[in-house]
Amino acid sequence: VVRSLRGSREVLLEATGFGRDVTPHHWTRDGRRILYSVSEGDSITIGWFDVENPSEREELVADGPWSFHPSLSPDEKCLVYGSNKSGTPQVYLRDVEGRSEVFLVTRGRSTTGQWSPDGREIYFHDLSTGTTGAVSVEWTPDGPVLGDPRTLLTTRLRGGMDSRHKFRVTPEGDRLLLSLESDTQVTSVQIVSDWKRALETR
Fold first, then answer.
1. I need a surface site. Which of 30, 37, 149, 165 has the fewest CB within 10 A?
2. What is the pLDDT of residue 187?
3. For the ranges 1-15, 47-61, 88-102, 147-161, which has the lowest average pLDDT?
4. pLDDT at 34 exceeding the cut of 70
């Protein structure tokens, strides 16, 4: 459901018929499409629909039993997402048109990737090692070239496999906001500033 934030906050759009569980993830800058994931039976797929005609839906990713937590690149041409097609949740990269190969971003157990504001890095959290890391992305005429994953921080995020809301990159790309595990009931929030300089000194 899309509601106006002005006046009566009327319902501007109501899209139905997705199945049992649907999650909106991203509204394209031109306002024409909404990216979503939907759970149907034992599978999770990723797609988007036309705002003017919500019944017109395009499936983008059905990569293994579960494809989840999609994130569009800043230019909205590529997509990072989680998939368990290998038997282990990992993060993958592909273009939204499905015309190029699918690239493996992470090597450990990861469910979520997030883009830097300039689209030159993908951040992730490794559930196996409790580390937050990054992979560089070089854009070439032949497609993206991914660097080796590197560790930025060693810290365990709060709560299970769903890390999509547990860490965020600021719009400037120079800080990370993390929601950390705690031995008490108090949830820790840590803001790491100037982490790129700290990485360079390692």
1. 30
2. 57
3. 1-15
4. yes
